[in-house]
Amino acid sequence: MADKDTRRAVILMLAGTFLFWFSVYTYPSFLTVYAQESGAAPALAGMIIGSYGLVQMILRIPLGIYSDVIKKRKPFMIAGMIASLVSSIGFVLLKSPVGLLAARAMAGVTASTWVTYTVLYSSLFNGEQLAGAMGRLSAVQYAAQLIAMLLGGYLAHAFSYDAAFLLATGAGVAGIAVLFMIKDRVSDAPPKTVKALLSAMKNRSLLVSTGLSVIFYFVCWGTVLGFTASWARDIIGMDNAQLGLLSAFYLLPNMIVPPFIGKVTGRFGVRPVVTGGFLIIAGACLLFPVTFSAPALYLVQILFGLGMSLMVPIFLTGAIAEVGDDQRGVAMGFYQSIYGVGMFLGPLFAGGVIEWFSGGSMAAGYAANFRAMAIISAIGLVMTLFLFKKREQQPK
Asked: pTM for the whole thing?
């Protein structure tokens, strides 16, 4: 592929990435609140949020394997954007907790196709360029989420929840148009057997990145993408526009830091950076239940986001850095499917803790959840110390 063609492909992939994540992130800032207002108890609200991860657990490995077998990524990407349209329209039409569960699960179908985005995008770069390229991809991903949450929160506050869902619909339509302009990269290598593809799952870097990601996403979806919004609304009294802004603050560091993560890990090594990330999010979890004003909560969100930004690009790169191009689909499918365990169980666990410890005070339940998540983050920190070598570095 010529340099000009490569640049065009990269631009289209980044544009598609932006619209992909925008289409499923105009509403997560208030979705837990919306589910509870629609009649869902905390545990059921957690199940609605967690269904997004459950679907990914089920679909991502077979999707990654099949895309490697047929050596095509684009059809899955387009199918994912269509699923996003179905999801956002479902939120408009289906107002019961069961309807919200179905619509959120369909968004999980969309997110499952992220496997093919990352594989097709990574195929445009060689090994030396990979970490920086994946950092830029993460930056675009989180920029899309930040802008979507800000606009979605504002529209939900100024007009209605449905306005935010319809904004997602518009992004889905635009995303499909962009994806049709992207070309698949077809390898000339003979197709591998499923057994050969599955051998990628034995790679140590993939297994370590995946295991630590499960812990990270468990905490993330039990707090900033789950019940932090409920704390903000029920305890602090923040409105929907403020909830959108709250989500934007945790995403802000994830826009700024990832492009530089290759240089950071090259200087300090992976273990100190990941350890620092878990330490930071554990500290944020301990601060959430003693934060009672919007400005202070914004600052804690930024702190949590900083911890995220140190880990996500490392885990993403580690998942594919040591496997061949023809095995990246199954490697990424495995990585994203298994960390979906954390995305599913995190909010489910959080909702159960909140109900168990609430008694006559929701504040007590929310606080118990935050402290439990701090303990789980500490477990991730300890595992990092054991799983990474002292000076192990990320490929630049």
From this structure: 0.76
Q: How far apart are CA 82 and CA 76, in angstroms?
A: 10
pLDDT at 393: 46
pLDDT category of residue 317 using cuts at 50, 70 and 90: confident
Model confidence over 2-26: pLDDT tens digits? Answer: 577 778 888 899 999 999 999 999 9
Which domains are seen in the chain, by residue range?
Answer: 3-184+192-387 (1.20.1250.20)
